[in-house]
UniProtKB/TrEMBL annotation:
Pfam family, one: Ac45-VOA1_TM
Name assigned to this protein: V-type proton ATPase subunit S1-like
Family: Belongs to the vacuolar ATPase subunit S1 family.
The organism of origin for this protein: Sinocyclocheilus grahami (Dianchi golden-line fish)
Extent of the signal sequence: 1-27
One GO MF term: ATPase activator activity
Protein's membrane topology: Single-pass membrane protein
Occurrences of domain V-type proton ATPase subunit S1/VOA1 transmembrane (ranges): 416-454
Swiss-Prot/TrEMBL GO biological process terms: regulation of cellular pH
GO cellular component: bounding membrane of organelle; cytoplasmic vesicle membrane; endomembrane system; proton-transporting V-type ATPase complex
TM regions (residue ranges): 422-441
Domain V-type proton ATPase subunit S1 luminal span(s) in chain numbering: 253-401
InterPro entries referenced in this protein's UniProt entry, alphabetically: Ac45_acc_su, VAS1/VOA1_TM, VAS1_LD
Amino acid sequence: MAALRTVSGYTGMILFCFLCAIATAKGEEQVPLVAWASDGFALSPVSAPSAGHTVSVEELESHLNTALSTVPHNLLLFLQDRLSVDDFTLYGGVFGNKPDSVFQNLEVSALLSSSSLWLPSVSSSATALVSTLLQNQIDAAPLYMNPDTLAQMRLNASVAALLVFRLPYSGGDMMSTKEVLSGNDEVIGQVLSIMKAQSVPYTAVFTALWPSRVIEEVAPAVQSVWSRSLLQSRREEPTATNPPLEFKEKGSTCILLWAEKLVVSQYRSEKWERHDLAPKTFGEDVEPNLSGSSCNETHSLLVLNYEDVLNYRSFKLIFVMNRRHYKVSARHWFTMDLVHLEYDGKTATFNGSRYIYAPAEYSYRCESVSSSRYPQLSPHSDKDNANDWQISFDDFQIQGFNVGGKDFSYASDCASFFTPGIWMGLVTSLLMVLALTYGLHMIMQLRTMDRFDDPKGPAISVPQTE
Ligand SMILES: *[C@@H]1O[C@H](CO)[C@@H](O)[C@H](O)[C@H]1NC(C)=O
Ligand SMILES: *[C@@H]1O[C@H](CO)[C@@H](O)[C@H](O)[C@H]1NC(C)=O
Ligand SMILES: *[C@@H]1O[C@H](CO)[C@@H](O)[C@H](O)[C@H]1NC(C)=O
Ligand SMILES: *[C@@H]1O[C@H](CO)[C@@H](O)[C@H](O)[C@H]1NC(C)=O
């Protein structure tokens, strides 16, 4: 260790980059990044990456070069441990429409501003280097800060600086992710108001080292956590077996559905009775009754009417999809908000919107969509009968908007995250990151290891460097 301490900053930086590259070459891990400037400044527009494209290190560098060309060179980097677009959906007000959004400061200053830069999918190998990339922009070493040290510092608007604020993602057992994120947002708010109070214009970047996975909301029995990745290409054509089900309105197809299995199960006399609706739905000589279905620009309703399902004379499986415009991504998204079962006049309703969504030009596909895989589909309320039912769709693909014909558009794929390979990658990468953060730590001549390791302790700070 003593020998390591003598490593010069320069060599350290190379080592850092090298380790970053190794650590993150493992997976296709995506992290969102948002950049914005203080009032009165606008980031230069960047040609937005096409949907589903993961921004690489080189692309991020060029985007930052362009975007930062017109804005103040007092840079603030809010670097959270982990972050995914899912966090915005789950806890935020912009994607998630939550009134009690935990990203209030971030949303007001960045996400809702038309002049900000929003990259929903940046490879984590690029965001791990974001501090270096920003440093190259202004040619100044980063200062690791917390709001208290910032308040004591006299900033000079004409001297470029890179101030880095590390933010945790989880707070151990004591705090929920929501509380931690809410605390982080307060830190962002404080920092921005200090900058304002000192009348120093700034450019800020919020991103993370690693993608997060929404773990705490998932029941322990669940082995996979559902995350999403926008895939440019679909897997095998489902048409290999049967063509997708089409619903046509005014002669043109507006909804497509395909699944290998559409299983509904009801709990009766102490056991689950299953019925697979797929054979009645897909196939050359099957004509499913779609009466009641409808679609227009913003709402799509697919009603599948069956007879004699689990002894119910009439049985309906209904998919409710909506399309909304989210300013933050300047794009329309569709969500599958609800799945209803209607049987002999009773209903069972499941919510899906938080997890089942895709850009509106895309279709949504998932290896398995299931109500037992909480929270992918969750009972809408305790009042109806959803708790007596389970639904489980295998190799499921649906598209309710922008349908161009008999075939699905590109699919936005939900991918199961914790495969053994990824676990191995994660552990290896974690070790690498530990090594490199230690290296970085020394480069910045920070103080002690113990404080750095303690997420609840005060953030590491360096009052000044030369
Ligand atoms: C800010 O920095 C510039 C250039 O280094 C210097 O001329 C100026 O006096 C500084 N302003 C303050 C308020 O310190
Ligand atoms: C289709 O389903 C609706 C509602 O369940 C029913 O009223 C109608 O008769 C069915 N149509 C055919 C052709 O079976
Ligand atoms: C689309 O249909 C829904 C109900 O199915 C209706 O409430 C909405 O007004 C329609 N929108 C347009 C633009 O026609
Ligand atoms: C389902 O959605 C409704 C409104 O869309 C909401 O009130 C309800 O809490 C949701 N249920 C669950 C279990 O998330």
